[in-house]
Amino acid sequence: MSARQSVVTFYYHLLSQPSRALKIFLDHNQIKYIPKEVQLAQGEHLQPEFEAINPFKKVPCISHDGFVLTESVAILRYLCREFIVADHWYPKDSLLQARVDEFIEWQHIELRAPLAMYFRTKFLMPKITGKPPNQATVDKMYKLMVVGCDKVENIWLKDKPYLCGNNISIADILGACEIEQPRMSGYDPTEGRPKLKEWMNRVKTDLDPHYADAHTYLNAIAKKSSGESVGLSKL
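== glutathione transferase ==
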């Protein structure tokens, strides 16, 4: 662990899956931070002030003693090294750590990409543009999303309570926040997948009240099939 223990500045928006994962991790582990919510609907992420912090113009990112990180996985690993957190989050043991890395590397393409694109294509872009979704793209992302969720059910959770073993890790926070995302567009990945549902409930129980707090906005959207009652002005 580093000697640096100053406060982290955290740039985020809770519509972003990795933003939610980082907020949950920071809150659960009582890591002090200065919250900087970036108003995406107002284009704050595109302004020169934010570009000076993150040239990729995306959330989340952090600044810590002038050191800026712009990728959520790198940020989580960094926080595990820089602050006092339980070893199970990102184990020092090489084999256990490799299991966590294994899921994190896998999920970028096989889970995050289709779930995020399904939500974006079916729900987000139609709300922003006022145009109907491209059904061919929605169907393509749906098929890929189902395959990814089935792999979590049948492979990652086949014989263990958490994605990477017997203890919760940063992989579980990242994975759970991704699984939540398509609920806003009317698809619940836990339906028909009992192991996935049990795991999600286990993760929520482990991380509440911080998990519930980070998903307040998402849950409000998910409860409305049309999403009309929750405006995107809060994005």
